[in-house]
């Protein structure tokens, strides 16, 4: 990778950091492909239980670098621009295929494709200095990276329309109140809160969490009967796992379970 996307793994948690702080982590060069590759490497590591995506410096991510986009628009280079859009599509598809829980640690502004990236994660924990906006139409463009798909599923159709059409930036507290952010924490405790939550998830049974993710992914586009059947199948697979036996034994023995994903 180029250094504009960083990956490190510690204690079962993969930390993926957008690393262009001088440009508020705007996407340029190979960043989209590097993000895809970082997600794939983390997801395929058998020791990784949780992924955390965040930004370096004072922003989570502000979408496409407008110097690059402006140059492409000025030259009418539709071929290169479409390749960049497709690279973002690949990154989101890979992210949504990850079996592990994915946390967006929204440390600052998340705008444009940065906001869409946060939406594509399973859970969003934000600093009280964070903000959120699908700001695409400010420059005459359309949401991508799945923003049009994820946003109405989180906040409802009417609220999604208001946010996308107005292209306004939403402060952290409002984002929490309308369901964009699951948690908002003071900036001085942000890193500790994210680490603690990631560690909490990393200690849970991986097979059960992966099964829950699969069912939740289907839930909004399926009938009740479909989900009941999906739950039955996933429940039976979990029932047969060593993790279930360990969980019951630990409960009975009043100790902390040691789940192995088996």
Description:
With 262 residues, this protein is an alpha/beta fold. It has two domains: 5-202, 2-enoyl-CoA Hydratase, Chain A, domain 1 (Alpha-Beta Complex); 206-252, Lyase 2-enoyl-coa Hydratase, Chain  A, domain 2 (Orthogonal Bundle), CATH 1.10.12. It has eleven helices and nine strands. It has helices spanning 31-44, 66-75, 78-97, 113-120, 147-155, 157-166, 172-177, 190-202, 206-219, 224-239, 242-252; strands spanning 5-10, 13-18, 50-55, 102-106, 109-111, 123-127, 131-133, 170-171, 183-185. Helix 1 (31-44) runs parallel beside helix 3, helix 4 packs across helix 5 (147-155) and helix 5 (147-155) packs across helix 6 (157-166). The radius of gyration is 19 Å and the shape is globular.
The helical percent reads: 40-55%
Number of helices: 11
Total discrete domains: 2
Number of strands: 9
Strands of the biggest beta sheet: in what spatial order?
1-2-3-4-6-9
Output mean pLDDT. 94
Oligomer: single chain
Overall form: globular
Largest sheet, strands/sense/barrel = 6 strands, mixed
């Amino acid at each position: 990778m180029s250094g504009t996307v960083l990956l490190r793994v510690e204690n079962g948690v993969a930390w993926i950091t957008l690393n262009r702080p001088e440009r508020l982590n705007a996407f340029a060069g190979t960043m989209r492909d590097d993000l895809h590759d970082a997600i794939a490497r983390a997801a395929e590591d058998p020791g990784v239980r949780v992924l955390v995506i965040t930004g370096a410096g004072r922003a989570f991510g502000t979408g496409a670098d407008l110097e690059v986009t402006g140059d492409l628009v000025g030259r009418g280079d539709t071929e290169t621009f479409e390749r960049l859009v497709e690279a973002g599509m690949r990154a989101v598809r890979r992210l949504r295929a990850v079996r592990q829980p994915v946390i967006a640690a929204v440390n600052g502004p998340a705008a444009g494709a940065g906001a869409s990236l946060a939406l594509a994660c399973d859970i969003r924990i934000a600093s009280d200095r964070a903000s959120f906006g699908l700001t695409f139409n400010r420059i005459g463009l359309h949401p991508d990276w799945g923003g049009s798909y994820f946003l109405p599923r989180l906040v409802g159709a009417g609220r999604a329309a208001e946010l996308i059409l107005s292209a306004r930036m939403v402060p952290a507290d409002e984002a929490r109140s309308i369901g964009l952010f699951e948690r908002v924490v003071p900036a001085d405790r942000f890193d500790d809160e994210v680490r603690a939550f990631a560690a909490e998830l990393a200690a849970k049974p991986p097979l059960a969490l992966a099964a829950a993710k699969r069912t939740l992914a289907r839930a909004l586009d399926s009938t009740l009967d479909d989900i009941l059947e999906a739950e039955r199948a996933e429940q039976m697979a979990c029932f047969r796992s060593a993790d279930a036996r360990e969980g019951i034994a630990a409960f009975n023995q009043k100790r902390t379970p040691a789940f192995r994903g088996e």
